[in-house]
Amino acid sequence: MKRSSLSVLPKGIREDVEGVLRPDTEEIRVRANRPVLLRGPQSILLNRIASAEECETMLELVCAHSLFAYEQELRGGYVTLEDGSRVGICGRLNPSGSVSMPGSFNIRIAREIKGAADGLMERITTRDGVLSALILSEPGAGKTTVLRDAARQLSAQGLQIGIADERGEIAASVNGVPRLDVGDNTDVMGGCAKCRAMELMIRAMSPQVLITDEIATAEDAEAVMDASGCGIKVIASAHAGSAAEIMRRRDISGIIAAGAFNKVLLLKKQGTERRLYDITEELT
C-alpha cells in the first residue's frame, strides 16, 4: 500500500485528524503524551493526546513494519513517504544511530501545486535560454514545491532535466519511478547524497538543467560548480532567511561569488501567499 501522510497515523489519531484536516495544513505533529497539532496558516491543536504506544505503532507504519529496511533513513532522522511527504522522527537512538524509541513525529505534507514555479520561470527564462538560480528560504516556505513544478515546466519546454533527489521529496520515487509529476523529460536519481547524484547524472544522462534541494555541504557546493563548469544550468535551494544569512555559509557563499548562479532569489511566505524576491545584486 502506498504510504501517505495520513496512512502512517495510528487508527485513532488518523480518524481525529481526518475530521479537522484543512487543505492548507502543512504539518502534522504527533508527540507522546501531548496533544496532536496540525500546523498551517490556521493551526489546530486537537483535544487528543498521543500515547507512547501509539508512537511506537506509528514508527512501525512509517517504516512499513520493517525498521531494519529503513535503518539508513532513520539514522538521518526522517523517512520520505511515497506521496512525497517527509516524516521527521525524534526519540531515543540505538547504538547504530537510528531511532528505536520514538517520542515525536513531524509529518511535512507534500503537495503538487501546478503553477508554483510561475514566478521563478519569469525570472530564469530568457531569449538565450534558462538561467541558473538559487532559491533561499526559511524551512517550510515551499522551496521543494517550487522546484518540483520548475522541473515539470522546464521539461514541458523540451529540456532534459535531472533531479538529484537525495531525500525523495521532490519526485517521491518508488523503485526508481517518480510518483509526482516532474515532467516527461525528467530523470531522477535518489537514494544517495545529492552531490553523488549530480555527478552520476552529469556522466550518464546529459542533463541540460540539474535540480536539487537544500544544498548545504562543501561536497554539494563542489558538485554545483562542476555542473556549472560543464555548461549545465543548476536550480537549487538552500536554507537562509536573508542575504546576510546565506553569506555566513562559507561554502554556498563561495560558489555564489564564483558565479555558479545567475540569480539568487529569496522565497518568502506571507500567509497562504509565497513571493520570490531577487536579491542577486545584494550578493555581488
Question: What do you see in this structure?
Answer:
The chain has 284 residues and is of the alpha/beta class. Helices cover 29% and strands 29% of the residues. The chain has nine helices and 15 strands. It has a seven-stranded mixed β-sheet, with helices on both faces. A hairpin with a 2-residue loop joins strand 14 and strand 15 (273-278). The longest helix has 14 residues, at 143-156. The radius of gyration is 19 Å and the shape is globular. The termini are far apart. The mean pLDDT is 92.
What labels describe this entry?
single chain, 284 residues, alpha/beta, 29% strand
**Rg result:** 19 Å
Structural class based on helices, strands and sheet pairing: alpha/beta
Helical residue percent? 25-40%
Main beta-sheet annotation = 7 strands, mixed
Write down the secondary-structure element order. Answer: HEEEHHEEEHEEEHEEHEHEHHEE
| N-end to C-end Cα span | 50 Å
What is the beta-strand fraction? 25-35%
Uncertain regions: pLDDT < 50 for 5+ in a row? none
Number of strands: 15
- Return the average pLDDT rounded to an integer: 92
**How many separate helices?**
9
Question: Can you tell me the overall shape?
Answer: globular
Cross-sheet strand order for the largest sheet: 11-10-12-13-9-14-15
